[in-house]
Amino acid sequence: MAKRDPNKTARNKLDKEISERLNELWPTVAKDTGVQNLHSFNALIGGKAATFIDLKNEVISSHEEYLSHYLKGFARAIAEDGWTAGGASFGSETLKHNKKLFLKSAATKEYFTLFLKRSYLRHYEELVRNRPAIQDAEVWIGQNNSDYGLLITPRYKNGTWENDKSEIRHFKHLYWTIGHILATGLVVDGDPDPMPFANIDEYLNSFQKVLVRPSGSAYERQIAKLYAEYVKAQEKPEEVPLLIPELRYNGKDKKHKFRLDFCIINPITLNKVGIELSPWSTHGKLAGTKGKTQQQINDDDLPPKFHPAATRAPAVLNTPSGAVGAT
What we know:
Layout: H1 6-33, H2 38-46, H3 49-52, H4 63-79, H5 92-102, H6 106-122, H7 124-128, E1 138-143, E2 146-151, E3 154-157, E4 160-163, H8 178-184, H9 200-212, H10 218-233, E5 244-248, E6 259-265, E7 272-275, H11 294-301, E8 316-319, E9 322-325
Antiparallel strand pairs: 1-2, 3-4, 5-6, 6-7, 8-9
Helix pairs in contact: 1-6, 4-5, 4-6, 9-10
């Protein structure tokens, strides 16, 4: 049986206590405001959270901070008619009316504050962790004509794959981990059918034989083998960060030049670490060179990351702690 998380247990206990207090306050709140429907009044508070707070990007570490963001957004939406942090917009007159209701009495003020505190507790896990920016919420891997996408909340729309941006913060797994890829699978742009993995063994098998093997590097294959053994040996393998092979710097762009042998994204900090076994000539293998001049080999056969142009345009992974370059 899985161990209970004491922090989650404490939050649930506090949630229950707040709910009991809200129920005690409600008769007085209904009388003071004239709003007789509990759910309607709650919607006046909770239904505006996405309007006042940038829930897709803000990382909020406490209920006090949550309340502060809410009140600042509330004030701005009143001052700037129609302003929104990302949710539905509301007219300033409507919001002024709501504000009067919330400040009607000591009971309404307490109810308003406690309701927001409970909202934070109920969404704690999705609000407190770092979430990738929209542009960083997908990675594309693999060689030209053999590329795959790893998204967080993939959906197929208008012939292409994209993230459902509103659901990224609700993603239940640690980002960029074994559990992540088991939940989403991989996708091929232009193909509406994703590539699912039924279990860890199935993914690791594909990782070694489909994703890494085409590189032609014996060293990359050995690293992949050791990684697979490491994952299987862990108590919670689904929480192991992915060893992302052949990261494409230009994403899914067809005109693709540069790739990184491996990349690891920290699921907590979202910092990126790039691994490049350079130069490619030390660990790669060229085939079909018979009958070609050296110039033809250079032009036609060298992998993109070994092309002379790569020395003029090195790619860099920017991280909060600095930059990691690929040579």
